[in-house]
Fold these 4 entries.
Entry 1:
Amino acid sequence: MRTALLLKALRKNFPSLPFLWNRHFLLLLKRPRLLFQHLLNKPPISTRIFYGLVLGLVFLAGCNSRSSDAAIVFVNGAEPQTLDPSKISGQLEGRLASSLFEGLTTRDARGDVRPGVAESWVVSPDALTYTFRLRENAAWSNGDPLTAHDFLYSWKRVLEPENAAVYAEILFFIVNAEAYQSGKIKDFDQVGIKVLDDRTLQVRLNAPTPFFPGVITFVTYLPVHKDSVEKFGDAWIKPANMVNNGPYRLMDWKINDRIQLVRNETYWDKENVKLKRVDALATSQGTTAINLYLTGQADILLDKGLIPPQILGELRQRPDFHTFTFLGTYFYRFNTTRPPLNNPLVRRALAASIDRQLIVEKSTRGGESVAPTFVPPGIPGYRQPVGLPYNPEQARKWLAEAGYPEGKGFPRLSILYNSSTSHASIAVEIQAMWKRELGINIDLRQQEWATYLKALDNLDYDIARSSWVGDYLDPNTFLDCFVTGRGNNRTGWSNKPYDTLMNNANLQTDQAKRMDLMQKAEKILTEEESPIAPLYFYVGMLCFDADKIGGLEGNLLDEHPIRDWYLKKDQKSVISNQK
C-alpha cells in the first residue's frame, strides 16, 4: 500500500522519467533506505528532480503503522562526546543532559525560565543574594533524596581547578568562583555558595545579575549524584551506572546509533512527562538525517546543520518545516598562537575577504543574514558595532602590510571543520575566496565531532569553523567566551583591554553603561583584533508534523526541552516499526 501511494505520487509529478518504470527501481520502492542511497549514487537528470524524489519518500512516513506507546524518535546530530554536565559545551550533548538532569530552574518550550528543582527563590534588596528553596519531593532516580548539598557538590566539582571544566566560566557570576577555579584562593568556603539546610541553597553574586535565574538553567549548573561519580569515576555516565534526577533516565546508549531515554518514575513532576520513551539518533551526515526523517524512521529532525541546503527550497513549501529566529552565530576561529595568525593584520585580511552574502546565498540557503559582528541582533538594549564588512581591496592592503603582498610567502594553512555537508560547502567557498582575493592556498581538514572538539580544546588547528548559541538573553553569553583563559576561547587570544572592558561590564549596575562597555569590547573582538571571523546569523529550522507532535516551539535560545514534547491525540510514534 505504501509503495503504491509513493509510486502514484512520483508518476504524477514526474511523468516523463522512464527510470520510474525500471524493475530495479520498483523493487527499491519497497526498501526506502536503499532507494535513497540509489538516488544518491545515480541521481536523475537534475538536482530539482533528485530532491523532488527524495521528498516523495515522505509518503512512506505518512503511511507507517505506529505503536500504542507514547514515544518519539528524533535526529539529534553527531555522536555525543559525553553526558557529564561538567564537561559539556555542545548543544547536542546539552539537550540530552538537560533531559536526564534538572537544575534549580529550567526552561519551557518557549524558552522562558520556570522553576525546576527549586520551587521558589528570594532575591535580596541589593539583588546580590539568591536564596533557593528546593522541592520536598525532589529525588534521584535510585530514590535518594535530592538536597542542597548535591548542588554545592556539583558546582564545586565544576570549579575544582584539576577538573578543568570547559565551561566553568558560566559560574563566575558567583562571588570568588573564578578565584577558586584559577587557584587564587584554596578555601571553597569563600565561594558564594552556601547550604543553609537540606532544602535551602544560598548564592551570592559579584554584581546584580537580573538574568541569573536563566543562567542557572544551563547544563553546567545541573546537579550530579555524588556517590555514583565517586564510585564509578568516568564510567558513571554509562546506562548501568547513571543516577540522575531529570524527567528521563538513560536506558541504553549504542555508540554511533542511538541513545534511548525512558521516563523517570522518581521525577517530581512525572505526571506531566507525556512520553514513555525517546530515542535520539546519532548521525553527522545530512543525507542520512533527511533520509531518516523523510522515510518515517524519525519523527523530528532537530539539528539545523543536518538539513542539506539543496533541499531547503522544497522544504520551505512543506507544512512540517518550521523556521524561527534565535541567538546563534556561525563563525571561523583563528589559532592566534600560530604564525602568521598571531598577527591581527593577517586575521583582519582573512575576515574582510570573505563574501558572507555569497555564502548565505550559495551554501547555506536558509534565509540567514550576514554577520559582520559576533553578537546577534535581538538582545534588548544592545547595539552591535559595525564589524568588518566585505572589503577585499582593504584586505589585500592589510595582508601586504603584514609582509605578504599578493599572498607571496604566505604559509599553507588549513580550515578544520566537523563532518557535515554544509560545513564542507562553506569551507570550499572560503578556500576559493582566499585564493582569488588574497592569492593564498588553504587546505581543508575534516574530522568527526569528538575529534574536532578535542582539536579545538588543544589548539590543534589553524582556522576552524565554529558556532555559538546564546545561553541567556545578554551579550555576555557571547562576549565572555573570549576573555583570556576562558574554556570556550579556543583561539589562544588574550587582550588586556578586552578583558578589562568585560570585567567592568560584569560589575556595572547601570544597564546602559554596561551595554556600552560590551559594545566597545565587541569592537575590539570583531574590528581590531579579529581572533574570529563571524560569517552569518543562524535561522532556526525544525522538521516535525505539528498536527501530530506538540511541545516544540521556536525561541531565541533554540531550546527545545524533550520534557515538554508530546504526541497529540490518536498519534503514535515510529518506534513500533523498529520492534
Entry 2:
Amino acid sequence: MKFLQSFKQAGFAILSISMFAFISCNSSQSTEKTTASDSTQAAATSAVKHAEAVISGTYADTTVNGKATFDEENGKVKMVLKITVPSKANQSVAAHLHEHGACGDMGKEAHGHWNPTNKEHGKWGSANFHSGDIGNIQLDSTGAGSIELETNLWTIGGDSTTNILDKSVIIHGGVDDYVSQPAGNAGTRIGCGVIR
C-alpha cells in the first residue's frame, strides 16, 4: 500500500511538472506574439523622422538657450522652437532657417535665409516668403518663448528644395518687419543651432 501511495505521489508530481511546463510554453508563445505585435507598432512609430537643433548664443555677452525639434509624419514637418533670451525679456525676436549648417563667426557662417524657391522675403503663409521665414517669437518676463509651425514645404532628408537637414536656426536680436529685403531687417544673429 505504501508503494501504491508513493506511486500516486510520484505520478501527481510528474503531472504537476508537465502542466507547469505546458503553461510555461504557452506563456512563452503568447509573449512572442505580443513581441511581434509590439515590433509592428514600433516599426510604424519609427516611420516618423526626427531632427533637432540645439541653439546657443553667438555673442559672449548675450545668453541664448533653446532647442528646435522637427518631426516629419504623413508628408508634413512639425517644428517646435523653444528659446530663452533673458536680456530680451518682454520683447520679440525673429527666427529664421539659414542656408548653411554652420554657426561660426557669430552666426555669419550660416549665410542668408534658406530660400530654395527664390522668392522675396515675407511673412510665413503670405504670397511671398522664403522657406526659412519662420517669424517673430514673443518672449515672456523671463525671456522664454516658443513658436510652432507645421508645413508640407519642408522634409527631413528630402530633395534640395525641401530638406531642412544641415540648415541653421538663427535667432535675431530684433524683430522681422516681413517687408525689408532680403531678410526683414531683423538685427544681429544672437543665437544659432544646426539642424541634425
Entry 3:
Amino acid sequence: MGHIVLTDEGGEVTSSGGRFLSAFGADLGPPTRRIFCQPCLDWSERRYHLKGLVGARILDRLLELGWLKCVSDSRALQLTSSGKAGLYETFQIEISNEGVLTCDYATHDG
C-alpha cells in the first residue's frame, strides 16, 4: 500500500505515509477544520494535485527546503536544481531538462 490513498471522495494518509511525511518534515498535526486530503483537478493545467492540509504541508516543506521557489507576480512555481536532486533522492521522481516527470514505481512506495 502507498503512503496516500486517494478516492473520488477524499484521501487518507496511511500509517507508513504518516511516518514518511514526518521524516520528510511535513508536519500534519494538529487537526484543523481544513480539508485533510483530496484529489483536485487544476482547471488550467488539467492535472491532479493534492488539495487540503496534506498538499499544503508538503508544499510548505518543498518551499522551506528551497526545492521550489515562487515566481513573482504568478501562481507558478519554479523547480530548483537542489529540488530536482531532492525529488529524485526522496521520492524517486525524475524531472528531465524538458520538464517531463517520470517516477520509478517499482521502487517508490508512495
Entry 4:
Amino acid sequence: MCKIAVCFKRHMNKDEFEACWRSNDDGMGYGFLKDGKLNAKKGFMIEDAAWGEYRMIPIPHVVHFRTSTAGGIAEELTHPFLCTFESPVFKEIVTEDPILFHNGCIRNWENLARCFWTLGKGGMGNYSDSRLLATLIGDMDFLSMRRTLRMALDWDKFVLMKPGKICMIGDFEKYRDIYYSGTAPTKPFQVCYSYGNRVEGTAFGD
C-alpha cells in the first residue's frame, strides 16, 4: 500500500530505492524545494528512468512509490497532488501551493466524490482517493490541512509540503536517516521539519 520516503540528509541508495519500487511499482513521483518554491514531478512508470532522475534531485526531498488501490494504474495518479480547489493533473510543476503525498486508502471514496462533483466542485480528469483528498483540503490554510488529516484519518500516512516545510503525519519509521511510511512507531505522531534544522511539533503538536 504505497511507500513514502522522506530524505532530510541523504538520498536513498540503489538497494533502498529498488526495495521501495519492487513492492510499489505502479509509479513514482517526488517533491523538493528550489528557489523558495516547490518543485514536483511524477508519472515515472519505469524503474531505471525513475532511478536516473531521482539521483539528481536535491536534499531534502520526498519520494512516493505507488501501489494502486483506487483509480487504477495511471501516470496522472502517481503522487504528489496539488492541494488546491481543483487539484489539476500535472506531470511537472513549480508552485507555492502545498502538495500532498498519501499512503493509505479512503473507504467509499467514490461516494464522497460523487457528492463533491454533484456540487460542481473538483477538477477534470482521472481521480483517486488521494487526489480527491487533496481537492477537499485545497481551500484550507496549511495548519487546518494538517489538523484535518491528523484527526480524520488515523491509520493513513501523509506528507504535506509547502515552501520551507515538510510535515509527516502518521506512522513513520526512521532508518539510516530516512523516514519511511510504516508502522514502527508505537503511536501516530506528527513532525514538521522547517528548513534550517528546526523541528516544530512532535507528539501531535501544532
